[in-house]
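Re: How this chain folds, sequence and tokenised backbone to follow
Notation: Tokens come from a learned vocabulary of local backbone shapes, not from coordinates.
Start of record: The labelled sequence and token lines come straight after this line.
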Amino acid sequence: MGQSLSPVAFLHQHLRESFQIKTDDIPRLLEDIFGFFSSTLEDFVQSRHLDLKATGIKNEEIYRTLQKEIEERRFKAPSLSIRQIRRMIYG
């Protein structure tokens, strides 16, 4: 009888076989994915604000964009007003 794979080993095998991902790239890929899914709402708002600000978008448009993006994210977040978003960014 064969040995059972640990969940992490199974995930590695699945990624290699399903997507032809190189074994050396899998840890970095998983770190990215886990990091994406473990960020807090506040971390996301602050980071995304900086990303959007760097493109030259004005704050009022950024706030509306963040409102929409928060609803689409993987974490369950309460609806936020623009004022609450502004406070997460600037304190």
